[in-house]
Amino acid sequence: MDCQQARGWIMTRRKDCFSSVTIALLLCGLSLPAVAQESAPAAETPDYSQHRVRSSAGLVAADHQLASEAGAAMLAAGGNAADAGAAAMLAVGLTNPFASGLGGGGFCLYREADTGETTVIDYRERAPGAAHRDMYLVDGEADPQLARHGGLAVGVPGEAAGIWSLHGRFGQLDWERIVDPALNLAREGFPVGATLARHLQTLAPTLEEWPELKAVFTREDGELVEEGDILVREDLARALELLRDEGVKPFYTGAIAEASVEAVQQAGGILTLDDLKRYQVAIREPVTGTYNDFEIISMPPPSSGGVALIEAFNILEGFELESQAWDAPAIHLIVEALKHAFADRAAHLGDSDFVDVPVERLISKEYAAQLRETIEFNSTKPIDAYGSTAPSDDPPGTSHLSVVDAAGNMLACTTTINTRFGSLVYDPDFGLIFNNEMADFNIAPGQPNLYGLMGNEQNAVAPDKRPLSSMSPTLVLKEGEPFMSLGGSGGPTIITGTYFTMVATMIFGRDLLDAVSGPRMHHQWLPEQLFVEFDNLPFAPGLVERGHQLQTRRAYNAVQAIMRQPDGSWTAVSDPRKGGIPAAPAPSESTEDHQPQAE
């Protein structure tokens, strides 16, 4: 059966229909971007070379290949990093709908090559106007489920406004051209990836309670789609067509806004047309810090990521780790710095439009020196040595993409609907799956959590407030020149995934693919555990000797990154954990066989 002859939402299960998807990009009148597509040979050590692309003509690293291709097609058409980022974000919201989309929001950093200025676009979701501090309390006790699934979990979406703002400020191509790749994929269909199929199977029991959403991902035989099935999204195509032809107005005052309010309110939510009409992106200044010859440019509050990264690197700067091996003594210090940053995140961070956040103190060298003095080289410390305020819930999810163009413009964008498929609230008219970003607030401020720590008032629910986030889009300069764009997905592990990738490349000089694909670790101060991705890591005994409580946990963090090479070219890596593949706008250098370095 030909791909175009199949009927319904799920057109076919033939994987050879992938060629019909790449035609979607060609429908835009654009040449197909170059992508490393070598098949990994059978080997005991995974060959991740297909997740790396090198180019001097610009690169896009997204967590889905089709999103990378959509962005690279914009570069091939003469667009810049903003054009590529906007197209890639629209595409990844379609191909990875469990993680991001037009029902969500996010953060973008954009650095202009000619001026060296970095602009922060904050299109994070906001609490509805009727939200209040105790809205998730039932008989005086917090009910986390109310903030996870259903209408009360939905914040005011900012994704469409954010993408529109990015393109309007910095883009070069016509807006219609930006939307066309995602629109064509929605109409023509695209192969379901392994990651989407896995998340659907994991969520299958819960989807039974949300039949309209389940129907989107159900084949004609009644089964959920599997890897290789061709998924057509006629519902989302209607939204994308309006976005292409009318801009963002329909999302905030028009037909899509009306349908969104109806869907959310029918699910018990409090979103109103006035909430959507009043939504605006916030343009902010980045937080910046230094580590030796590197300048770190990252996201300010309501993100906690930038402050945490800079604080941790300030602590590390006094340890002279460059002279040490990647082993237990160095990793212990790296983890201890991270624990201090997470404890301060819990105590001080929130939406700076609503609360005072001591950013300058937290990212100062003087404060880092004080914390460094408390760190023991051969042992960790009890919980209360780091802080006494309970962290907010910050569940895993999200997508990140990085772009660098031939002119040297750099972009890092992280976008999300929060947990897997967000609130599960779905609008059948226009295909939006709505966020559950309200879960990122501290829903029980002033109450002790299971560790006996008091809930953070800084991140309490308030009308129009943005919840605290771990999203950490980050740019790095080396000796004043562009060096790296990166970020990740996965709740609080976004910070640690980004942090360890930066540590591995900036301090230990490791190859970018090694840094991204190597064994992941995570510590967020609470719980008092160092999570490791694999058993039997050679440095594990040394960490246990220093008092760290190790627990093996499958990683759900995925990092996308682009790094400058000594010859001036760039390398892009999309994390194998999420199956992404980067793309370039023109034939890139062939990637030699690559085996990750032994840890």
Largest sheet: spatial strand order: 1-22-21-17-16-11-10
Main β sheet profile: 7 strands, antiparallel
Q: Beta-strand level of the residues, as a percent range?
A: 15-25%
Return the average pLDDT rounded to an integer.
89
pLDDT < 50 stretches: 1-43, 448-454, 588-599
CATH superfamily of the domain at 27-38 and 48-189 and 232-316 and 395-520 and 556-584: Gamma-glutamyltranspeptidase, small (S) subunit
Provide an overview of this structure.
The chain has a seven-stranded antiparallel beta sheet. A six-stranded antiparallel beta sheet has the order 2-13-14-3-4-9, with helices on one face. The N and C termini lie far apart (48 Å). The protein has a domain of 394 residues: Gamma-glutamyltranspeptidase, small (S) subunit (Glutamine Phosphoribosylpyrophosphate, subunit 1, domain 1). Helix 1 runs antiparallel to helix 6, helix 2 runs antiparallel to helix 3 and helix 13 crosses helix 14. It has 19 helices and 22 strands. Helices cover 33% and strands 16% of the residues. It is an alpha+beta fold and 599 residues long. The N terminus and C terminus are likely disordered. It is globular and about 60 Å long. Strand 5 and strand 6 form a beta hairpin.
